[in-house]
Amino acid sequence: MALWSPGQAGQAAAGGAGGRLLWAVVALGAGTLAPRRAALALDATTLGQRFTVLCISVLVRGCAIPVAWKVLPYNQKGSWQPHWNGLLEALRGSIPADWEVLVLADRGLYARWLYQKIVAVGWHPFLRINLAAKARLDEHSPFVWIKQWLPPMGEQWAGQVECFAQKQSRLCCTLVLCQQEGYEQPWVIVTDLLPTEVQGAWYRMRYWIEGGFKDFKRGGWGWQHTKMLDPERAERLWLAMAVATLWTVAVGGAAELQPPTPSHKELPPTHVARLSAGSGHGPERGRELSCLTRGRLRLLAAVLRDEPLPQGRLEPQTWATTLPPARKPSAAAKIKEQQRLKQRERQRVKRRRRKAAHRKGKGKGKKAA
Questions:
Q1: Antiparallel, parallel or unpaired: β 171-178 and 37-47
Q2: Is residue 356 part of a domain?
Q3: pLDDT score recorded for residue 13
Q4: CA atoms of 248 and 254, how far apart (whole Å)
Q5: Running along the chain, 369 residues long, what does each successive block of 10 average in pLDDT?
Q6: Is residue 210, in this structure, part of any structural domain at all?
Q7: What's the number of domains the chain is made of?
Q8: How far is it, in rounded angstroms, from Cα 60 to Cα 38?
Q9: How is residue 68 annotated by DSSP?
Q10: Closest Cα to residue 81, out of 105, 47, 110, 102?
Q11: pLDDT at 276
């Protein structure tokens, strides 16, 4: 598996492993994908007040494997458009032309130029937009608020429209609307796929890239502890973490499909493990360990046992066709969320005090002058 970094080769515009890393992801999953399709996600993350990272990741089994990225100084002025265009261009041709490639992004990244660039690369945009927009079914119809097409809970509406009333923003596309109980807001998505070919539930995969950022930080590789200040050095570190993510997710995904054989039937009838095991005929349980965590444990076990290191293989899941109701948060999750909000408020208060003290100090200096 040959990997190559445009950043290391002096092509910093791509800012990552570029097409070779994406090719490696496709190669690890070749032969297991039916139909032959892949999902990518675009998003940005920050590291304190040092870096902002623009990232494109492949979405596989609840994980996100970075394949192209650009590390920028935090709050650097200027548009992200040239950086996103460069990252997408670096990946052009890395996936076979007969594959269906879906590119997902959240509302904060939507722009008409991004939609058009994804189409130009030969892929299918799947971009979320705000509900507060207008569209019309054809050029002879008036523009109306798209919220009037919202379907009942648990259902989906899709149709070809002209989206956005302003001429400079107008877009001919397929509009997808879906909503489900327990979700704060409905999903409003624009794509170039036909209404009969699209499922709004696919947008659930976009959230995997947020979990991928957590894997790079406190949930996995611990990037939040880095002392680096140079964005170019950080890009090279991301290459190492991306390769490690690819390996561990491949190993963990293969291990997930080979669960250990349950042995509770060999226990006495009154044993607590047997009584709590259930019948095995209920609904499928959710993933208890991410593929990245499972892969790390599998590799660590191989090292401790002095066994050959497993290589793994990417085994993508079937894309969802329905949007399940949101799970109610547990009492522990509610307490944790309250603590997180209190901590965020304390941080905001500290920032306001620091800024006020800084302004006060500047004012004293001016008076003294």
A1: unpaired
A2: no
A3: 36
A4: 10
A5: 36 48 63 72 94 94 93 92 94 88 95 96 95 90 93 91 92 93 89 94 94 92 92 93 92 82 68 66 68 91 92 82 74 84 91 86 57
A6: yes
A7: 1
A8: 9
A9: E
A10: 110
A11: 66
Q: Is residue 313 part of a domain?
A: no
> Per the omega criterion (within 30 degrees of 0), is the bond before 152 cis?
no
194: which DSSP letter?
A: -
* Residues 205 and 61 sit within 8 Å (Cβ to Cβ): no
* pLDDT score, position 265: 65
pTM confidence score = 0.80
Domain membership of residue 316 (yes or no) is: no
Q: Give the domain CATH number at 202.
A: 3.30.420.10
Q: What was the pLDDT predicted at 224?
A: 93
| Cβ neighbours of 316 (radius 10 Å) | 17
Give the chain's radius of gyration (CA, Å): 24
Rounded-to-integer distance, Cα 38 and Cα 65, Å? 12
Q: Are 176 and 104 in contact (CB under 8 A)?
A: no
Q: Which residue has the tokens 């995904």?
A: 253
State the residue range of the domain holding 25.
18-130+190-251
The answer to whether 21 and 246 are in contact (CB under 8 A) is: yes
Give Cβ neighbours of residue 99 (< 8 Å, ≥ 6 apart): 26, 36, 37, 38
